[in-house]
Amino acid sequence: MADNKIFAGPRVRRIRNGLGLTQTAMAEALEISPSYLNLIERNQRPLTVQLLLKLAAVYKVDLDELQGEAGGTASQLREVFADPLLAGEVPGDHELIEVAEAAPNAANGIVKLYRAYREQAARLSDLADLLAREGHEPSLAGARLPIDEVREKFERRPNFYPRIEDAAEAFHASLGLSPGEDLAPALKAWLRNKHGIVVRTLPIHTMPNLRRRYDRHSMRLFLSERLSPFDQLREVAIEVSLLALGEAMLAELEALSLSTSEARRLGRFELARYAAHALIMPYGAFLAAAQRARYDIDILRSRFNVSFEQAANRLTMLQRPGAAGVSFFVLEVDNAGHRLRKAGAQGFPQAKFGGGCPKLNIHAAFAQPGQVLVDAVEMPDGTGFLTVARTLDGPQAGFNERVRRTALLVGCDIAQRDEVVYGQIAGAHGSVAVGTACRLCERQGCLARAEPPVTRPLGLDEMVTGLSAFDFQ
């Protein structure tokens, strides 16, 4: 019977209190001592099968109510305490289950408060975007995580760092590579000859949870075999950038004026990633190739032996004064709709484009993995954009693992469509009517509307039903 013992003290206490019984009265009916019942209610003694049957027989209690855990509430509490603001407050699920069982009403109150907080935060963000569109830059007080500060800095400024570009071009030229020569061996040789660092690829079972690891003691850079050859090249280029382009990266990092050491650390990693792209695809050569190919990403990825994602991101960096390319921006999301990355040649166009409309082809891309989807889209104010979307596959998954797949949208102003190869087919059947986000969009009769706009009251006419569950006046 030991395997059948369960701890359900708070539930027994709720049953007793609901019946208005004292511990002595219930203990007598169950044929146990009051002290033993007290221990049961404090979860210091288990409920045996015999006691469960006795409770069911005497008080007509549903056994499922006693044996089942407060799983639903505990799961909701788990979501609450997964928020970055509360991360680390609760070390494990045991306390959450205790709260859900001992104080279910209080637990439900916590969940309701958290959802109200998230709703208000979303509304505040929407209103801030609305004010930004109208030319007002709100000054919002409140706690922000370092990653929020870093994302805001990188998303709102041009994705161009001149010191890094100049240093990367000079370093690439110093390698003395012939046209078309593979870059990876040259970078690995530089690491080995200049710093004694050897690059090794490790199998998944040796390094199951890491992309890369630099061992300072053995002077070896370990890369996971999960990574594609393109991603392995970028990891090597990141290590080279940290060593060879450190001064340029530090100067750009200082210019960002990040407020905390953690934000600076995250900013330094983002700049290292930028520097790796600049090193793999030198500015002058990449711009010339992009203009000749009319910014065909597949041609560029083949010419520079990089991935679609790397070539697309590099397009957003072509903003050198006097030698600028088309002003592209990128948006990356996962299939749950989380926005993972935003960047733009002139800063991501949050106010005009937004990127939160479900009708954008970045969401349709998940239904056609690997295919390039092209659209001309029109915003409510008449502004137009050319958008190119495609799925990206993450690190190699094992047989029993689910593939990580995201989608990337590359966009530019519709006025530049004639310079871009994708412009010749975009809009052949008209433009797609989109908005910045449902909460900021006032398009009537939208079949894809997921939320009501914050700028209009809901329509509550019982005699008329529109196409959306969020009709508004």
From TrEMBL:
Pfam families: HTH_3, Peptidase_M78, ScfRs. Residues 12-66 form the HTH cro/C1-type domain. Keywords: DNA-binding, Transcription, Transcription regulation. Signal peptide: none annotated. InterPro entries: Cro/C1-type_HTH (IPR001387), HTH_RamB (IPR026281), IrrE_HExxH (IPR010359), Lambda_DNA-bd_dom_sf (IPR010982), ScfR_C (IPR018653), TransReg_Diox_bact_type (IPR050807). One of its GO terms (cellular component) is cytosol. One of its GO terms (molecular function) is DNA-binding transcription factor activity. The keyword Transcription regulation applies. PANTHER family: HTH-TYPE TRANSCRIPTIONAL REGULATOR (PTHR46797), HTH-TYPE TRANSCRIPTIONAL REGULATOR SUTR (PTHR46797:SF23). Belongs to the short-chain fatty acyl-CoA assimilation regulator (ScfR) family. This is DUF2083 domain-containing protein. It comes from Rhizobium terricola.
